Amino acid sequence: xxxxxxxxxxxxxxxxxxxxxxxxxxxxxxxxxxxxxxxxxxxxxxxxxxxxxxxxxxxxxxxxxxxxxxxxxxxxxxxxxxxxxxxxxxxxxxxxxxxxxxxxxxxxxxxxxxxxxxxxxxxxxxxxxxxxxxxxxxxxxxxxxxxxxxxxxxxxxxxxxxxxxxxxxxxxxxxxxxxxxxxxxxxxxxxxxxxxxxxxxxxxxxxxxxxxxxxxxxxxxxxxxxxxxxxxxxxxxxxxxxxxxxxxxxxxxxxxxxxxxxxxxxxxxxxxxxxxxxxxxxxxxxxxxxxxxxxxxxxxxxxxxxxxxxxxxxxxxxxxxxxxxxxxxxxxxxxxxxxxxxxxxxxxxxxxxxxxxxxxxxxxxxxxxxxxxxxxxxxxxxxxxxxxxxxxxxxxxxxxxxxxxxxxxxxxxxxxxxxxxxxxxxxxxxxxxxxxxxxxxxxxxxxxxxxxxxxxxxxxxxxxxxxxxxxxxxxxxxxxxxxxxxxxxxxxxxxxxxxxxxxxxxxxxxxxxxxxxxxxxxxxxxxxxxxxxxxxxxxxxxxxxxxxxxxxxxxxxxxxxxxxxxxxxxxxxxxxxxxxxxxxxxxxxxxxxxxxxxxxxxxxxxxxxxxxxxxxxxxxxxxxxxxxxxxxxxxxxxxxxxxxxxxxxxxxxxxxxxxxxxxxxxxxxxxxxxxxxxxxxxxxxxxxxxxxxxxxxxxxxxxxxxxxxxxxxxxxxxxxxxxxxxxxxxxxxxxxxxxxxxxxxxxxxxxxxxxxxxxxxxxxxxxxxxxxxxxxxxxxxxxxxxxxxxxxxxxxxxxxxxxxxxxxxxxxxxxxxxxxxxxxxxxxxxxxxxxxxxxxxxxxxxxxxxxxxxxxxxxxxxxxxxxxxxxxxxxxxxxxxxxxxxxxxxxxxxxxxxxxxxxxxxxxxxxxxxxxxxxxxxxxxxxxxxxxxxxxxxxxxxxxxxxxxxxxxxxxxxxxxxxxxxxxxxxxxxxxxxxxxxxxxxxxxxxxxxxxxxxxxxxxxxxxxxxxxxxxxxxxxxxxxxxxxxxxxxxxxxxxxxxxxxxxxxxxxxxxxx
Amino acid sequence: xxxxxxxxxxxxxxxxxxxxxxxxxxxxxxxxxxxxxxxxxxxxxxxxxxxxxxxxxxxxxxxxxxxxxxxxxxxxxxxxxxxxxxxxxxxxxxxxxxxxxxxxxxxxxxxxxxxxxxxxxxxxxxxxxxxxxxxxxxxxxxxxxxxxxxxxxxxxxxxxxxxxxxxxxxxxxxxxxxxxxxxxxxxxxxxxxxxxxxxxxxxxxxxxxxxxxxxxxxxxxxxxxxxxxxxxxxxxxxxxxxxxxxxxxxxxxxxxxxxxxxxxxxxxxxxxxxxxxxxxxxxxxxxxxxxxxxxxxxxxxxxxxxxxxxxxxxxxxxxxxxxxxxxxxxxxxxxxxxxxxxxxxxxxxxxxxxxxxxxxxxxxxxxxxxxxxxxxxxxxxxxxxxxxxxxxxxxxxxxxxxxxxxxxxxxxxxxxxxxxxxxxxxxxxxxxxxxxxxxxxxxxxxxxxxx
Lengths: 1058, 451
Description:
The complex is a heterodimer. By secondary structure, chain A is mostly beta strands. Among the domains of chain A are: 2-93, Immunoglobulin-like; 260-316 and 402-451, no CATH class; 457-651, no CATH class; 855-888 and 926-986, no CATH class. In chain A, the strands form 12 sheets. Chain A has a 22-stranded antiparallel barrel. In chain A, strand 26 and strand 27 (557-584) form a beta hairpin. Chain B has a single domain, classed as Serine Threonine Protein Phosphatase 5, Tetratricopeptide repeat, CATH 1.25.40. Helix content of chain B is 45%, strand content 8%. Chain B is built from 18 helices and 11 strands. In chain B, helix 3 packs antiparallel against helix 7 (99-118), helix 11 (229-242) packs across helix 14 (332-345) and helix 14 (332-345) packs antiparallel against helix 15 (349-360). At the A-B interface, strand 24, strand 31, strand 35 and strand 36 of A face helix 1, helix 2, strand 1, helix 3 and helix 4 of B. Strand 35 (708-713) of chain A pairs antiparallel with strand 1 of chain B, so a sheet runs across the interface.
């Protein structure tokens, strides 16, 4: 192999510039054999003669009198090489184990070492990303990259996630950062990226970083690069197997649960008062206790029979049944294999991954397969191209047996003493009707109408199937060494098909057939399965032409310039769905011809129309055209200036041609003081002071500058008519975010300690805000124009240190972020009643997301909450509500953390290493839930505070929880209590995010001898627990709306490379 | 050499590619939205009957003393509706939106957008007709707004009394201050005269689009409000002479039918309906016994307009919408009544009686028993009485009361029974004029009405 390389090298040397004394070669690592990019070749007087390219090759003309050169690269030991009699120089550098690895920043347009850029970046390399096990890639960033806040507070389901980079940059538009995958903006689903394929991730934080990507980068950019094969690399195979075990959700966490021993007396007391209706024609669900109370009242059962039943129920807890029958320990299995091989001309990488996740809820399962094929081919010294084919296919099954499916019609929770299994058989619970009614259905000629959850296992699963592919190709042309022209193209396409098959024996189908059974006994629906289907598809094209020029002039000046243009088109189609009744699985036939407009009489009462299939068709087509330029100039390796300019244009509808685009720009500078002659301290290797300022943008496609109209068809005249969708808005502008970033990078003791301190200020201008309009103008819809302003400022610190570096080593990383935002311009004043819900409306001079509350006056001597109207304290809730002003609200603080970060410590001894990651969030508030009597009486949703409520006069001194109201009461009594200030708690908490343990065979005594090459086994545990939190209400402040805590899980894996 | 050829090729490609970019950016991001690119688009906006034809104001009708809402049901009304019914001073108490204002200014906005965009298109019959229709709708909205939110028109004081903010631009931020009542009425008349001027009879007409009769009819109604009886009569007679509409003979209709009058029937000149509010549903807004008793037994309207409910209360069923929605468009019957009234007022009593009798023949079983006095005031009162009986729940009653109140001979207080007590509203009370919505006053500083 080596001889081929040598002879090829000679041949190349002859072809190109044989006349001059040109020296060429390749720089490689001694152990890994992989090429080293950006290695510096210095002459004896410190002149830079050349820098190796991304393929490790370099070339320079030997100056007169220079016989040797010093070749160095951060992370490797620098070495002198003799060049007196050679034409080629193939160099191997050995790794410098003392040093932390060099960090390369990838922006998606170019790659640059961190010490040659002025912008603000965070990065995570392969090693760090591999210290976690997960199906998706973004969750591996948590705790590994600073400044990213993972916000899971949205809707109580721990699987929904919002990423915030340096706070917020917009008020009403999309808040998510832009994701770049292998140099192209990524529009697919995030689950299609297999983390095992990822080489590194760079997060671009400031304007210098984001103005590169333009109008969609206002919220920050996350650049993901997948692994590629490098030229002249021996064939390597990597295999990775891991299993992740997830504990069953802890149902005891649910704060809304009331014990049966409290719930039943509550029902009995309501029954005394005549709260429950006896003969409801709609047969609305009732609890067994209430049913038996009616039986008792009508003398259908005796008192002792009631007592027996009651005692049994008091001891029941449906959580036990759910835990036993509907939950399981979740198991995720991940298998991955990849092969890379790099020849001189052709390098190839193939990878294949398969994931199978069994969720902790039964009947929920996820499978994913990814396939990736990457080739790069070097035609000659001028042209090389690469192709990239990725295919992803996923299937997600979702059963109909999650705890929410057990909640009866019209209620918010199931009564606590429900049981799912009786004497070894699935038991019935009320779903849409009273138990007795459902039980007797068969006696009146209907199908069995009982709902037995455990008999529904395996039925009615929804399958969401998503095939997706990404194909790209790039062509690099290098007519002269300093100049590269790149043409690249990518096509992404994907489809999503959602299908549910309702089994003919399932409750759903029996219910539909029964419901529509007519008085004469005839059925509207045939008996058989029901099939529901919906498809959407999307595809996008991206094309870029890029020219870059890099030159070293007189060795003191390094210039790099980049310019280009991009076209991007994204298209999404939603196709009308189908519903097939009487579906026959074997033959695949079904019926759809029903009268969807007719109102049929239904059982037990009322009328209804048959649900028609979703008939919405629409197509969305987003197009962008951009021009950009980046320039950087480095003088004597000390002084650095960078600039970038970009113009983005889009098919923003209804906008004049010249308004369709927005120019964005940034400038930056950096100065490495430590390289100055006057700098005294030698142990400090580098002190870079840097500053950037620039403008990024944000996009809101729902607003237009010209009048737009929307067509519909009239049922009165059969003509088409139109409505005005958006009024003329001639001053429409794109949202802008201007960011100023000041930072310092310190490198001490030969890279043992690296500290970065940054301060930034973001000014979001021309943000879309809701503006209150005078209706006399005639436009009555919500109106958005550019006028709102949001200011964000903060600081980030990141510290990496190798504290101990012997056989035992200890590495520590600390990320700390402060961030505060304030709305500086917004005119709409919301009603105060809307500020005490889950998400607050924007209010000027306050953070975008904040927590407000009503003042609390305590309870009166009957346990009723008191309110203050004017100077009087009373229980007049109506007057309080109608008199309420914004100034009456108490403002507590931000709802999003203002100070957060991670502390990661990694200890290694020989082959073993252990990492512990702590995460903290502080400086924010949340609203703790409590008992709502309206919800309890009408919908069975309670709260554990119920047990500590006021029960007798005098209790108002010890408790703030109101009494159970007597008689009818206003919903405002609940609101005044739930929105009160003493439910607002500080969310500060510190937790152990995860722990990682690894045994690496290659680092031990057996290194070098092992045929297995580099093999490691690892154990990873996440959500280990909260060490400390500011409040004691038993909730996790990071997910205050959730019914279950973050599930603990532990993974085991094996990875081998050979 | 090779390298330079490659470079050249690349430059050429860039050049070609960048020139196609402008059309490429013209694709619509969402298929269902459109820009205004043709006259059809403008006509489609005016054909939006949900915006343009429906939602004429209801607050005036709700204030009329002919109807009753049960005490217990008042709680279920919104604050403005309840206060309107109860003739309170502070109608809104901060409530928003006040739809009678908002939704009628929306009609003006649509009309202004159409008028503004029309300038882009060449002038032909279709564009003229569209312009005519837009002007009509603008006048139609202003006509309703001025009756509700301004005082009655008195020629001697109209120049010094407040009218409406006159909106003639499509700019939603341009909110003019209130003009004088005279200017407002003049603006409505100007719009209608221009509308008539541009109007062309073309194919594809239906009753939600204004035809020449509709434009003349509105002119006639406006002149009536202004006390310009000559001009009002001139228009009314022109309609009666030329229209394709014909008076429905009530003798031919079925009194047992749920809705005796069919939608778009022959008598309709222009179709419109009143804003449906839960305060005024047919089952809630009960007809007073006294009002019902004012109908003669031979009056066919007694049985065709009203029905008795099981509990003895009276409900309305005579809408020309053929449903529980109230018709507020223009019928030939109304034009006949205007012709009668105007003739009487200008001293041509005989002509007036002629029109009146032609009309009543279609409303009574027999007209021979009707005795009409000959003196002007008595005749006028008779016509007015017929107006009141004909135009039930048509959105016209309140405007009529306001204009009668400006005449000594006709001005009268009205009474309503509330919680067992009788409340009275004197003629020309400030409460005949509704307040401007508080949000409008706050945002644009418009002068508020005195209550």
